[in-house]
Amino acid sequence: MLKGVLLRPGVCDFPLSGSSFDAGRLVLEVGFGDGRFTAQTAQMHPDWNILGVEISAGSVSRAIRRFRREGITNVRVYHGEAGFVLRNLVAPRSLHRVYVNFPDPWPKTKHQENRLLQRSFFRRLSTRLEAGGALLLTTDHHDYWKFAQAEAQASQLFSTQTPSPPEQHLHTKYALKWKEQGRDFYHAVFSKTGEDPEPWPVLQRYSMPHALMSGTLPEIGVFEKAIVRFASGTAVLTEASKTSQGYYFLTHVAEEDLVQDLLLEARASTHGLYVGISRFGAPLSTAGVKAAVAWLVSWLEGQGLGVIQRSY
Ligand SMILES: C[S@@+](CC[C@H](N)C(=O)[O-])C[C@H]1O[C@@H](n2cnc3c(N)ncnc32)[C@H](O)[C@@H]1O
Hints:
Largest sheet: 8 strands, mixed
CATH architecture of the largest domain: 3-Layer(aba) Sandwich
Distance between the termini: 35 Å
Strand content: 25-35%
Radius of gyration: 22 Å
Number of strands: 15
Shape: elongated
Order of helices and strands: EEHEHEHEHEHEHEEEEEEEHE
CATH superfamily of the largest domain: Vaccinia Virus protein VP39
Bound molecules: S-adenosylmethionine
Strand order of the largest sheet: 1-4-3-2-5-6-8-7
């Protein structure tokens, strides 16, 4: 049975399994915005499982309210990057279709690297689509439409058709906005013809990294922001806040296509001072989180505390 609309990476399966979705075709929508296309598609195909991914928190909460209001039960939502979802939540060869309606065009040449439909995205997608699976793009941006076709072709893993946009795709929030301005619309269907030899394995996760320490926690007056660099990204410990049992350290971790804001903690426990991740917000325990915990432990060592046991 379905458990909740919003998927939390720290608690859902990698890749998603039957505990997140009922049996049925898996369809992904990237950048669903206010979710009206998602809701309509879910109603048209009650036997599909639709996974929506969106980076805007406001859009995620508005869309979830819509799904609840409209009684939709076959949609799950991930708040974050499409690349992360594709790689970690979608099992190899499990995806029937991907919808991308009006992706951000990033019109300036120097910003083109931010465009979603790059050849690396197509390569990754080829490993997650089932045989014959396809990505459907609709856009008002002629240059982006051409760019996506060139990138798909460069990947050598997709064939492209460019029929007129299906009517249903022309009623999204952005479609209606651009229609009012009299813009033209472009459509492309990218069908999988091959598969990238690189398997794009899921992100490595670690059991909760932590240490037990001895000694007395210092009073932290002003906490100097700490930047921790590791192989695949950066962690920044931005502030320390006192709690009844110790301190929380607000930490921002950016690695590959995952960004997390989480709390590390140093608090009294029965076995000593526990230094590790707080479960608040169900964070994902990654290489970046491990590096941040290791930094905090060595910073506390520098403040005179000793390590009783290290688990990372
Ligand atoms: C121009 S809006 C289109 C929204 C909706 N599809 C529509 O047609 O009304 C583009 C949406 O894509 C989202 N977005 C951009 N890059 C993304 C990414 N890498 N992963 C997930 N969502 C993304 C943005 O937050 C935004 O809501």
